Amino acid sequence: MILVTGAAGKTGQALIQVLSNRGIPVRAFVYRADYIEQVKVIGAQEGFVGDLQNEADLAQAALGCHAIYHICPNMHPDEIAMGQRITAAARQAGVQRFIYHSVLHPQVEAMPHHWHKMRVEEMLFASGLDFTILQPAAYMQNILGGWKAIVSQGAHRVPYPVETRLSVVDLNDVADVAAKVLTEPGHSSATYELAGPENLNQNEVAATLSAVLRQPVEAQQISIDAWTAGAKKAGLGAYQIETLVKMFRYYEQHHFEANDNVLGWLLERPPTTLRTFLEAHLISAER
Q1: Which residues in 45-82 are b (16+ Cβ under 10 Å) and which e?
Q2: Would you say residue 215 lies in a domain?
Q3: Nearest residue to 281 via CA among 135, 150, 136
Q4: What is the DSSP letter of 162?
Q5: Cα–Cα distance for residue pair 149/143, rounded to 1 Å
Q6: pLDDT by residue (tens digit) across 6-37?
Q7: Residue 116 neighbours by CB distance under 10 Å
């Protein structure tokens, strides 16, 4: 049995589907009872309702599991303490393998949600657990959040300069690697950067969108104030907004680039390009 925390999010769901397809039982740790049916439909054998801030919940969820894949809720201010609780629960339950879903370049203190993950990584080094750390780039799937404006208005809008170069990765590639390190030997004490094969600026992203959609798409920078207003309307909290704004400022100054060699080695195939991902999305949307 593999315990997956943060199981109702897009990363957790993608991993559950891959593990289920391989016949591997999953216990899905979710925050709300109404997520149980959702994770079971995609393949989780068990659902467990609990709070990552509750030691008793984590201790109970870890019982009988030989591995844990830990995903912290995105941009959670309590991530370091959550890391302490889940690693303690893993040790107490005698869990054999612990995989931590970190982030690309957690060394950057200017981005708090990255820096918190670095502190959890540091904790794992001293935990005594048989661990692997995965550090994925931002997902290509995030582009789909602005799909309506892309298709209907021909606008790929970002809250940083359109010249900004960013590494992105297909979530499905990440899920394949996560399943690999959970189920195959040879990955103990490893830290793997997971980045796609391109470091595109936003004009190049727009050009790829134009080619796939066969219509003009333009990259447009929106102001932080405009982005913040939209984020508040979408229900993001003050801490999440502040954290993301710091990330955007970092992108503006330094870009956010990486290399796909490690991902290709782990997948044993070329990592997915942005164009291939977008073409697959269009085919899926048309079904």
Answers
A1: bbbbebebeeeebbbebbeebebbbbbbbebbeebbeb
A2: no
A3: 150
A4: T
A5: 11
A6: 999 999 999 999 999 999 999 999 999 999 99
A7: 24
CATH code at position 69: 3.40.50.720
Write down the H helix ranges in the chain. Answer: 10-21, 36-41, 55-62, 79-93, 112-125, 147-153, 171-183, 202-213, 224-233, 238-254, 261-267, 274-286
Count: domains in the chain: 1
DSSP-derived 3-state class of residue 68: strand
175 located within any domain: yes
Q: Which domain holds residue 68?
A: 2-140+169-196+257-272
Read off the pLDDT of residues 268-279 as tens digits, 9 standing for 90 and up.
999 999 999 999
Is 163 inside a domain boundary? no
Predicted confidence (pLDDT) per residue in 162-204, tens digit: 999 999 999 999 999 999 999 999 999 999 999 999 999 999 9
The tokens describing 101, both together, are 């879903």
CA atoms within 13 A on the CB side of 14: 15
Cβ 124 vs Cβ 98: under 8 Å: yes
Let me know: does 206 contact 156? Beta carbons within 8 Å: yes
Say if CB 67 and CB 98 are below 8 A apart: yes
Instruction: Classify residue 161: in a domain, yes or no.
Output: no
H-run or E-run covering 47: strand 46-49
Model pTM above 0.70:
yes
Alpha carbons 194 and 177: distance in angstroms, whole number: 9
Beta-bridge partners for 67 = 2, 97
Residues 121, 264, 171, CA angle at the centre, nearest 5°?
65
Instruction: Let me know: does 64 contact 92? Beta carbons within 8 Å.
Output: no
Residue 283's pLDDT band, with cuts at 50, 70 and 90, is confident
